[in-house]
Amino acid sequence: MSDGWAALADRVAVHAQNYLDGLTRLAGGEGGDAILLPLLLVEVSQVSLAGAQLGAAEDVILQGNFEPAISPDPDLDGVRTALATRLGDVDDYAEVFDPYKDTGVTPYRLSDDLTAVAADLIHGLGHYRNGRPLEALWWWQFSYFNTWGNHAGAALRALQALVAHARLDVVEETTIA
């Protein structure tokens, strides 16, 4: 494995772990409700940087085009449920799945998107921690293009819209002349 691949694997692993740690803390109640959405926006933005790096890299091809088995991934339903509870009414939103092929609006949930990203990152971390950084890179890149990149992008747009509305949709003040 080249030094370039090793460095990329190390960077993505750090981003993945930071995202998982941040998401778990926020699902567990860290941070008040007023800063939940901005903090989620930061977490998704930072892990999206890792995805962009994977998207800009040449395709990772495994020897024999085979992914070795790893231990089962942890169940993230508790995190998803806790996020859904914290997000409340803003959990549901609408998104265009693929603006070039499918322009119909699709219902999405932030809690589902955020945990779908986490699930794919965890799977790659399993390879990485088992000393198989190339397999981790292959998985992260493959799943970025197939699942978690779309979920992160959709969540990023929704979170940015929510934060923008919170900051910009203010009641006009009336002044006494």
Write the layout of secondary structure elements.
Layout: H1 3-27, H2 33-56, H3 77-87, E1 92-98, E2 102-109, H4 110-129, H5 133-168
Antiparallel strand pairs: 1-2
Walk me through what this model shows:
- This protein has one domain (3-168): Four Helix Bundle (Hemerythrin (Met), subunit A), CATH 1.20.120.
- It has 5 helices and 2 strands, in the order H-H-H-E-E-H-H.
- It has helices at 3-27, 33-56, 77-87, 110-129, 133-168, and strands at residues 92-98, 102-109.
- Strands 1-2 form a two-stranded antiparallel ribbon.
- The termini are far apart.
Q: Given the C-alpha coordinates, what overall shape results?
A: elongated
The string of secondary-structure elements, in order, is HHHEEHH
Task: Work out the count of structural domains.
Answer: 1
Strand arrangement, major sheet: 1-2
Overall pLDDT score:
89
Q: Give the termini separation.
A: 73 Å
CATH architecture: Up-down Bundle
How many helical elements? 5
> What Rg is obtained from the alpha carbons, in whole angstroms?
18 Å
Task: List descriptors.
8% strand; two-stranded antiparallel sheet; elongated; 2 strands; Four Helix Bundle (Hemerythrin (Met), subunit A); mainly alpha; 5 helices; 177 residues
Q: What is the gist of this entry?
A:
The protein is 66% helix and 8% strand. It has 177 residues and is mainly α.
